[in-house]
Specification:
- The complex is a heterodimer of chains A (363) and B (218).
- Chain A is an alpha/beta fold.
- In chain A, 45% of the residues lie in helices and 18% in strands.
- In chain A, the strands form two sheets. Chain A has a five-stranded mixed β-sheet, sandwiched between helices. Chain A has a five-stranded mixed β-sheet with strand order 8-7-6-9-10, with helices on both faces.
- In chain A, a hairpin with a 3-residue loop joins strand 7 and strand 8 (154-160).
- In chain A, helix 7 packs across helix 9 (240-266).
- The longest helix of chain A has 27 residues, at 240-266.
- Chain A starts with 5 loop residues before the first strand and ends with a helix.
- Chain B is α/β, with parallel strands linked by helices and 218 residues long.
- Chain B contains six helices and eleven strands.
- Chain B starts with a strand and ends in a 30-residue tail after the last helix.
- The chains are: A alpha/beta (363), B alpha/beta (218).
- The interface between A and B is large, with 48 and 41 residues.
- The structure holds zinc ion (ZN).
Chain lengths: 363, 218
Amino acid sequence: MADEPLVLGIETSCDETGVGIVRGTTLLADAIASSVDEHARFGGVVPEVASRAHLEAMVPTIDRALKEAGVSARDLDGIAVTAGPGLAGALLVGVSAAKAYAYALGKPLYGVNHLASHICVDQLEHGALPEPTMALLVSGGHSSLLMSTDITSDVRPLGATIDDAAGEAFDKIARVLDLGFPGGPVIDRYAREGDPRAIAFPRGLTGPRDAPYDFSFSGLKTAVARWIEAKRAAGEEVPVRDVAASFQEAVVDVLTRKAVRACKDEGVGHLMIGGGVAANSRLRALAQQRCEAAGIQLRVPRPKLCTDNGAMVAALGAEMVARNRAASSWDLSADSSLPVTDTHVPGHGHDHVHEVSKENLYS
Amino acid sequence: MLLLALDTATPAVTVALHDGSDVIASASQVDARRHGELLLPAVDRVLAEAGIGLDAVTAVVVGIGPGPYTGLRVGLMTADTFGLALGVPVHGVCTLDGLAYASDIAEGPFVVATDARRKEVYWARYADSRTRLTDPAVDRPADIADQVAGLPAVGAGALLYPDTFPEAREPEHVSAAALAGLAAERLAAGEELPAPRPLYLRRPDAQVPKNYKVVTPK
Ligand SMILES: [Zn+2]
């Protein structure tokens, strides 16, 4: 529909320079430049390397997104950008670009929350988000259970990891197994040929008195490393496929069990899963199986929309426009620890944004 | 010609509009921690003061450093994106050159030094206010004492280390007005200005994680 808001979104919270364009809940472009290869030899994302790459990639990626979408920048209804949480220096590059772009084009600017964007992206795949929606966000940076009744204004944290993020555990075990970085895809691959029941690794925080929706992957990580070391110390070969499968099973078992329980406890009929770990094939399969058994509708976007991208930011920006949320001010700052409850960063006096822009461009 | 110049390579957030012969409006604030927040409102104020819309600008001029990375990128990213949105060229100017141009030292040689933090300075030698003799470099003041001995010096890096730069003087910070003036001169003379790419002069701090920690108790 032509009267739905046309929004460009910019994402630079970690190592992906993402620029997406959406019209309402329709995806028009999803351009990505990744610096992941530059980080591989360090075994993790190096913030300064990521920030430098964002600066170089930004303008070409915006250009690519506009071409892909076949729209003119003049026709945009707004510019959205990840204001946080994320790596401070990396966020600042995206926020600077978004502000300059919005200002020069005379469009409103929306600084939005990275986690809320991960949830909202599912609108591009499965249509309007049901309200309420339960969301399980799992990546190298976050592991959270969130509930939202309105993605532009109300996201409530039910639980989160108390130590490592789920994706981090994948990276660490991959490193112990000498499988390289990032660990998620390679563990997934090996696990497909292994036996998930071969080794009984611990399920963190699943005791009767543990916090029902919080996660812990540090103990699991230690247990897996210890098991591998024992094998090596005994001079035995490490069954990489079985270790990968059993480790992965321990992670996704806890994630899906807690997510489904949260849905039941809160009476929520829809579960969405997002973040890089949502690309894991076993997580998708087990979630499907358990949701079906519990009568819950599962929504998982395609893998490319689960990892960090600009389309998710545009999706939330479009929703901000559609629901008349206040735009951000020109002094919008990047906030590396933006609370998940701050779905966006409204300006002090949001009329300012429109007023100034109009004067500058059309007077 | 209507140039919009900006620089965030030093603690100063500085913006100016220049019509090819004069500065029309300018604004500078010194706050090393808030480049991201301050730059766009400063651009807005400068344009409003001049009563000119951003779309009248014919080229963007940006200080390319050297400077501490996080702040430096704010100006470069903003300039790059203005260039994209407006369809105008974006020119780089070495931030040290801007300081040299703003100095009132009639006779060279002299030195420009800015604060590189970590007890180092970004610096270069100049024959006069328009002629740089050396590539910008980053060094500990004590290590370059021989090379700058007896020379007047400008910039916060010189004022910060009087042992190395006993003849340090103003200006302390770069101004976009000077940057624009220098760029206007060079463009009018048909000179090519550098691309708007950052002068980091340092490799990124990157710790290669050691082999994973052994967790089995000995
Ligand atoms: Zn993310």
